[in-house]
Structure formats: structure tokens, C-alpha cells
Amino acid sequence: MPVSVITGASKGLGLELTRQLAARGEHVFALVRKANADLAAVPGNVTVIEGVDVTSDDAMTKITEALGDTKVDCLINNAGAYGGPVPEGDPLALF
Prior knowledge:
Elements: E1 3-7, H1 12-23, E2 27-32, H2 37-40, E3 46-50, H3 57-67, E4 74-77
Parallel strand pairs: 1-2, 1-4, 2-3
């Protein structure tokens, strides 16, 4: 059974990817800051790892402990964090 890890899986694109991959029979590790009813309602083999903030150094320890020695086939790094203002006049300067 393929194993996928999805960050930011509690809403939007991350939640939909969790639904789709679980429906295909994959084991999905859903990494979220806070679980919700929408994520809990996803049928299939979904393991929710709550309290994951991708900007935190402690997050990697939590993820590593939860996954153990599970072989991961796919990582979807959907969570995002942005810590500053958008540059005036040139939003592409962020990249």
C-alpha cells in the first residue's frame, strides 16, 4: 500500500488530496496544526498527526516519531507560512 504524507491537510487543497489519495487506497499521514471535523470524516486509512507547525523545529521530531520507520512514497508539502509584508510594487520579489 502506498504511503503519502500531506502537510496542511485540514482544509483546502490538502484536505482534498487527503480525500483523493485515501479513496485510492493509500495510507495517508495528514499533518495539521489542528484537526477538524472535515478531516475526521475522511474515510480510509488516514493517520492524523496534530500539532504540526512547519515553522517549528519541534515539528520534525514529532513527525519522525509518528512515522517511525514507515517508508514514505510521496510527500506533498502543502502547508505554507509567510512571515513578512508583501514588497510594495513587486509581489514577485518574494520569490
